[in-house]
Each structure stands twice: as C-alpha cells, then as structure tokens.
Design a protein that fits this description.
CATH architecture: Up-down Bundle
Oligomer: single chain
Number of domains: 1
CATH class: Mainly Alpha
Order of helices and strands: EEHHHEHHE
Length: 206
C-alpha cells in the first residue's frame, strides 16, 4: 500500500433503492451479513452515533452561516465537517463484529483522538475559567453544540454498555468521551467569539 495514499478503503456501494423490505420483520444486517434485531444494543449504539451526526450537521450549517460576519468560523465549520466523517468511520466500526473487521476498513484511530484533545486545549485557552455551571444558550450555535454534547454522552453510555457484553474497540469509547468534551469546549468558544454572554446556572432563579 502506498504510504501516502488513503488510509481506509473508499466506499463501495450503490444506493439504487431506498427500501428493500428486508427490515420489515424487525431485523437488520451488520457489515458482515449477520442479521440482528433492530433493538439490539449494537444497533442502538451506532444508531445513536448516526443521530449525533445529524445534529453535528445542523451545527455545521449554523457555523457556515456565521462565517460572513466572523471569518474564524470557517475553520470551525471545517472541524465540524471532519467530525461528521469521523462519526461515520466510528459507525462503520460499531456495525462490524471484531472478527469481520477488514484491515483497511474505516475506523477511529488514536490520531483522531489526539487531534480532538488539541482542539479542546486550544478552545479552553481562549475562554475565561468557569466559576459556575453553564446552561445551553447565549447563541443558537452554542445551544446546538450542547445538544451534540448530550447525544455524544448518550452514545458513549451505550458503547460502554455494549463493551460489557461484546468486544468494542477501545478507540470508540475514548473518541466519544473526548468528542463530548470537545462540544462543551467549543460551545464556550462560540459564545466568546460571538461576544455572547454565557448562561450561568443560578440555583435560585425565579
């Protein structure tokens, strides 16, 4: 394999039909062809990752819309688009039992996790230290990123539950954990970049 070439195989599929009727009995197929119930924990796990990807897509659109007034958001929108691809790679990993995993099948790697950690550190360096818990709000994009954060946490909980029953690549758990942290750090960075006040938790709010 060319060391400078693609790390993973390109997709090989043709979506010529949207419905097949094969799922009408409540089952679906894993990458290796195994038929499993649609409410199986593995399906619930990568289905939640898919849900997260949709919310990241919405946040990405919001970031794109801000770039005309705030050029720094162009790079941030690019980071969110990259995360969407990484989530699809993570879904590929979850949709495959370990014995069927191909060496060049799309997956999450430690370098993906390391990059998130660097982005978290960079975002935290640009905001004031917290003196209270924050609530979603202050800007639409901030609230959207908090939705992403909470769905990422749910995906992580499901991945942990799955790992208690079946083998799960450790990168899956680490990535989801860092990603939820990244959404939190990014949500604060967004409000700071927009000059929007953070919504601080007030236990005595009326």
């Amino acid at each position: 394999m060319d060391p400078g070439g693609p790390l993973f195989n390109e997709p090989r599929l043709a979506l010529n039909r949207i419905y097949t009727r094969r799922g009408d009995s409540g089952e679906t197929s894993l990458v290796g062809g195994q038929r499993v119930a649609k409410d199986a924990l593995r399906i619930e796990c990568f289905g939640t990752v898919d849900e997260l990807n949709a919310f990241v897509g919405a946040a990405c659109v919001s970031a794109d819309e801000l770039t005309s007034r705030h050029p720094r958001f162009a790079g941030f929108a690019g980071a969110l688009r990259r995360v969407q691809h990484e989530l699809f790679n993570l879904g590929s990993l979850l949709a495959t039992v370990p014995e069927d995993l191909h060496p060049r099948q799309a997956r999450i790697t430690q370098s993906d996790i390391d990059r998130l950690e660097g982005e978290i550190d960079a975002a935290v360096a640009e905001v004031q230290p917290l003196r209270s818990f924050v609530l979603p709000g202050g800007s639409r994009l901030n609230a959207e990123l908090h939705v992403c954060r909470t769905v990422a946490r749910r995906a992580e909980r499901l991945a942990v539950a799955l790992s208690n029953e079946e083998e799960v690549a450790p990168e899956v758990l680490r990535y989801l954990n860092r990603l939820s942290d990244a959404f939190f750090a990014w949500s604060r960075w967004v409000n700071a970049a927009l000059g929007a006040a953070e919504v601080l938790w007030d236990p005595n709010a009326k």
